[in-house]
Amino acid sequence: MTAEQPYAALGLTRGEYERILGILGRRPTTPELAMYSVMWSEHCSYKSSKVHLRQFGEKTTEAMGSRLLAGIGEQAGVIDIGDGWAVTFKAESHNHPSFLEPYQGAATGVGGIVRDILAMGARPVAVMDSLRFGGIDHPDTARVVHGVVAGVGSYANCLGLPTIGGEVGFDPSYQGNPLVNVLCVGVLRHEDMQRAHARGSGNLVVLFGSRTGGDGIGGVSVLASETFGSEGPPAKRPAVQVGDPFAEKVLIESCVELFAAGVVAAIQDLGGAGLSCATSELAAAGDGGMRVALDRVPLRDPSLSPAEILMSESQERMMAIVRPADLDAFLAITGRWDVEATVIGEVTGTGRLQITWHGETVVDVPPRTVAHDGPVYDRPYARPSAADAIAADTPARLSRPADEHELRAMWLRLIASPSLCSRAWVTDQYDRYVLGNTAASRPERAGVVRVDPATARGVALALRGPGRFTALDPYMGAQLAFVEAFRAVGCTGAEPVAVTDCLNAGSPEEPGSMWALAEVIRGLADICQAAAVPVTGGNVSLYNATGDVSVLPTPTVGVLGVLDDVGLAVPSGWSAPGAAIYLVGVTRDELAGSAWAWEEHAHLGGVPPLMDLPAERVLASALRACLRDGLVDAVRDIAEGGLLSALSEACLRFGVGARVWLAEVCERDGVDLLTVLVGESVARALVAVPRSEEIRFTDVLSARGVPHARIGVTDDAGGTDGVPALDVAGVGVITLAELAAAHQGTLPHHFG
Amino acid sequence: MRIGVVTFPGSLDDTDAARAVTLAGGEAVRLWHADADLHGVAAVILPGGFSYGDYLRCGAIARFAPVMTEVIRAARGGMPVLGICNGFQILCEAHLLPGALVRNDHRRFACLDQRLRIERTATAWTHSYEIGAEITIPLKNGEGAYVADEVTLDALAAEGRVVARYLGGNPNGSRRDIAGVCDPTGRIVGLMPHPEHAVEPGFGPSTDGLAFFTSALRRTGSQ
Amino acid sequence: MPRVVVEVMPKPELLDPQGAAVAAALARLGYAGTGAVRQGKRFEIEVADATPQALAGIRRAAAELLSNPVIEDVVSVDLLPERVAP
Lengths: 752, 223, 86
What we know:
Number of strands of chain A: 28
Strand content of chain A: 15-25%
CATH superfamily of the largest domain in chain A: PurM-like, N-terminal domain
Structural class of chain C: alpha+beta
Distance between the termini of chain A: 60 Å
Largest interface: A-B, 32 and 29 residues
Oligomer: heterotrimer
Structural class of chain A: alpha+beta
Radius of gyration of chain A: 26 Å
């Protein structure tokens, strides 16, 4: 019988199916077809993005790689931070499941990235999240927001991982397709780094963690590559996994003990494509052969077929390669934590991945063809014809506040807008204290975590993905995402050393969307090379669209920096009156893509702010010197919402106001007051300097040629009646109570 | 002085509690849930977390762990025990303290820098505070509302067994703003907020929590 | 194996925020004529034999483990009628 095999239903094209026929020299069995379908999916194989992603490796110089102990291709980049310590970090997306089932989609997103870090031999120590939702007023947004935030919070909190930072954004393009990008950072000693190779014939393949069930079957192949119809979720079986953070917590503890005992020869987590991925990748990376008895896999649901077992994305599972002599010790540790562990196979020298089901061979494939030699597509891409019109549609024509009164009203509207309002409603649902090493978390602008209690050595992390700039120019937008994260990290005094990224884009089969992705990758690779900071790993999520409407191409960029002493970082707001306030950097006439243009005028057009990497680098090095010498009280990077947002939040941080005058800066830079307030020019920071240190501070900046201007003083009793206020010449006086009400009221108003 | 910190499957703040004991000048002894042995410690801390995933009810399963047989026996014999957050839940489930902890009234997990007032210093864990001291320590939980019937609440008030109360608004629906209670001897204390996260400058909202641990290390004649 | 069903409900005098949330949701979804909601738990426990002793044992377990008498009531402990094969 030559019945047609259901390759299309599994997400494979005719061409991909024929390729499988060529590789095997025969028709694939159903389980083999299942394996190829999940491993060759966009999510697992990166088939549409690989040709472009190569640039990250190609543009990494040897010097850039000198701090790397593992780079792209391994599960997550491992970076040396000194004193024999290393950190590993990575960001990943879990977008499509989070629309269908926001809580579980987000929760399992956290679970997945934490296991990636665990598989590097590290103890996970912190997470961050970058969340993008639809319009704040849309009736469906609250459903997604509640679910996603509760999902991230409950899973991370239950694992005992502090959430140290991230971001939240709202835009109609994400309405049917929220973005949930999660980053995890882990800590390890150099010698504890684990690799994912299955070497040594006769070594055992051990599956441990939760039992395998029917959840998430086809999640990567079918769900991740489908755009949602405007009527709702796809008609196919919803493929959302259900997570159990308690199971992952005991998994983490047992893994950390397994690593310490030295009984793990290799390890991989089971994420997208579950067993298909773990077996084929471990086998392909090692001596090339593995035999697995699939009937030994502990099941939650005894009715699962071999193909279903291979496609299952049940959570909280890991696969280890264990030397036979170490098995007893391995099982003693997993037994101590009540973690189920089962020997399901062994490493062989055959160069084939052979899987049996009750003695019958159901899979016999060369593992490289499954794991690495999947199809690679050079998708056609073209700059959309509308791009020129968008670039020409500058904000110059937009109306501006006519007087002080209108400026003041605009200020309050902006600080309450979805782009700029307080995210406390979200971040108060996340534990930031557990593990006792969080030196900074939101509302600070970068997360800071101590790695070594003996020396206070640690890392700073910032995650940024400004979608508006990328919509105007994907190449520039990716670079601006990088420098925004770079700037935030620099403001802690840390030295940026590595980058991870989550590239969220629309359908690669649509030339305009593919062009945006290609430009994003090119832009990010170029800027990382110029900044000499390597991309150590990341994730691509495509097909983010609702019907024909793709999301704003959103590269979420995570920058990690190293701090010799986490105690050197200062807050982003001032707590003492009488300090001088400096605006560092120059402001240009560039309002395109700004929060002002979008929130006040629903306008998105023009060209994004000019990039200036040398200015960013010298700003970072100047601030590092100032922080090291204890010259400043507060540093706040200026980014979305410009100086308006920075001044507001710096005052609200500890409830200390300020008196500010901007006429000099306007004249020096040749811009009007509005532009100085809401422009989003790069390479700028707001700094509070004690009077006693002003001269040394300005000397440090002048020596490096960093432009700066004294724009005010901190003052905890502004105005005539002694009430804390922000007093900006040309705008008026806004009491901090009024500012706080505007800033903090928005999310509770919409989400309860 | 040796102070035990119990680890159940799912305990999260055990490492932090141990660090707090060390910073206070004591020797932290890690106690394993399955090991019915207190290893000669002078006091025990039941830390925060989600023991057993909060399955069934928070602390309901942990309460029956082998180590708890010893903890309960020792507590009844006068050993000081501090239950923080999940630990407080376990002490209530084990009937070492009255009342119970239920879901926050607003149904969300909340992590806040919470102001408290210490209302009883005649306990093994709070005697280093001034009576009425106002402190700020983190509160982080989803099931932190203290409930008990009116008779019990009146008795706690009459006997001065409310150890700490929330200030600046009730964060979770706890009856009578109760943040912590003790047994009649003052040796067993349950507290919802986390003093172990306020012991080190730069890694918490204050160091106001340290006195919980230094109190236990200082043996005093009066309780 | 026969099964015993135990139902546990929060005590009536306690605030039940989950029940309140469900009630509000029912109203929002347009289920007219619905009022207060209380949310509890139902346990199904397999027993080797459906004897009075087994049932008494489950009642003790319900009081000791399945419910917290401070905040919950065990409202019923019943043997499930065995399913009859079609």
